[in-house]
Amino acid sequence: MTATRQILPRLALSPGRAEPGARCLPEEVAVALSFNGTTQAVMMASPADLEDFATGFALTEGFARPEEIESLTPVETPRGIDLQIWLTAEAEARLAARRRRMAGPVGCGLCGIDSLEEALRPPPPVASSVRLGARDCLSAVGGLVDHQPLHDATRAVHAAGFWMSGQGLVAVREDVGRHNALDKLAGALLRQGVAAGRGAVVLTSRVSIDMVQKCARLGAPVLIAVSAPTAHAVRMAEDAGLTLVAMARGDRCEVFTHPQRITPDEAAHVA
């Protein structure tokens, strides 16, 4: 399998000084996601946890549920990796109908989407009785620090984790792309049989509407991020019943939607 990192030479410059050396950098490769012999999307991604990536991508993009995946085979090619995914006849029929509606090229941000209506389609509503303390939100973010080996080596990738009360972080995935990291996490949870409705997704990135859509399709009731959301992401999270917590840093976080799932405590001040 392709290496996830490479050590490359660099020249460090500072006033009056030039220092040769090397730096560890993350690899990114072209990863094709092919369903029943037809490529649906090509993403630039970190070449790790690719089975998780394919499984999570199929669900969060609305292509297929895990039980509709009959086989999944990563195939290395001279130009990248082809994830060959074979679906049941029912799932393939839905995907074929979607392909027939496509009128133009696929973009990497909203894969396989050809209209404004589909891009902004509301995700399924999230229903869960999960409750977290503000301290839990901050602990979840802080815990990611100890589960990012690729970031520690390169300082150039995102992470997505899943936190559960009494267990902490039960899964973490990294990737050069924030969407890819979330898809890999979704796939890991699905393949491990972890119920997403029982915890919170934690991100090292900002929150855009597609990240909200993916979390809602996964069924996670709480999304916690270290950076800010977009205004549209907040509106979509509100409509979907998703609790959106952002700017979770140090001893403070901000709750934007459905605050009933988050309880303040003396260890954290929630605006």
TrEMBL record:
List the Gene3D superfamilies hit by this protein, alphabetically. 3.10.20.10, Cytidine Deaminase, domain 2 (3.40.140.10)
Q: Where in the cell is it found?
A: Cytoplasm
Name the SUPFAM superfamilies on file.
Answer: Cytidine deaminase-like (SSF53927)
Q: Does the keyword Ribosomal protein apply?
A: no
On whether Cytoplasm is a keyword of this UniProt record, the answer is yes
Matching InterPro entries: Cytidine_deaminase-like (IPR016193), FdhD (IPR003786)
List the record's Gene Ontology CC terms alphabetically: cytoplasm
Which GO biological process entries does UniProt record here? Mo-molybdopterin cofactor biosynthetic process
Q: Give the residues annotated as active site.
A: 108
An example Gene Ontology molecular-function term: sulfur carrier activity
List UniProt keywords, sorted A-Z.
Cytoplasm, Molybdenum cofactor biosynthesis
Q: Write down a Pfam family by its short name.
A: FdhD-NarQ
PANTHER family linked to this entry: FORMATE DEHYDROGENASE (PTHR30592), SULFUR CARRIER PROTEIN FDHD (PTHR30592:SF1)
**Annotated family:** Belongs to the FdhD family.
Its biological purpose = Required for formate dehydrogenase (FDH) activity. Acts as a sulfur carrier protein that transfers sulfur from IscS to the molybdenum cofactor prior to its insertion into FDH.
What is this protein's name?
Sulfur carrier protein FdhD
Q: Which organism is it from?
A: Cereibacter azotoformans
